[in-house]
Amino acid sequence: MIFKGKVHKYGSNVDTDVIIPARYLVTSDPAELAAHCMEDIDPDFVKRVQPGDIIVAEENFGCGSSREHAPIAIKTSGISCVIAKTFARIFYRNSFNIGLPILECPEAVDGISAGDKVEVETSTGKIVNLTTGKVFQARPFPEFIQQLILAGGLIPYARERVKALKKCR
Fold first, then answer.
1. Model-level pTM?
2. Residue 9 pairs with which residues in a beta bridge?
3. Beta strands 117-121 and 102-104, pairing class
4. Integer Cα distance of 63 and 65 in angstroms
5. Residues 116, 129: contact at Cβ < 8 Å?
6. How would you label 56-91 residue by residue, b for 16+ Cβ within 10 Å and e otherwise?
7. pLDDT of 140-152, one tens digit each?
């Protein structure tokens, strides 16, 4: 999968409470969550974000609550992938479960600025800053994770597998 978009850059310890404030957790509607994505750390994020854009952040992105609403809000807002130096463990797992690609690459985070255009190829882990021409290497996703993301997350992936198994019988 190849993603290309403009970068929205954040610092360290961006927690799930600023990704999607708890006051909006009265719903699980992805569109409603996306309407308030990053609101407490970047009030204009929702106005600026375009389909395909990329979030780049420093360390421990997604720390705090284990709510899966955070990666859902990010994905539904139009963000195609997130690059960070490190991710909080539960956010990391929740992101793949809902089909949001995330990559750890400290060198890319240091070499990418807010507003840069970036291209990410998840099968190779290649990250290209199209604004500066710099190329970075993250660890590529294993085949299973690529299939999970391509399906749209764990539940759609499982549905496809069950459907395929039923056809074989």
1. 0.94
2. 56
3. unpaired
4. 7
5. yes
6. bbbbbbbbbbebbbbbbbbbbbebbbbbbbbbbebb
7. 999 999 999 999 9
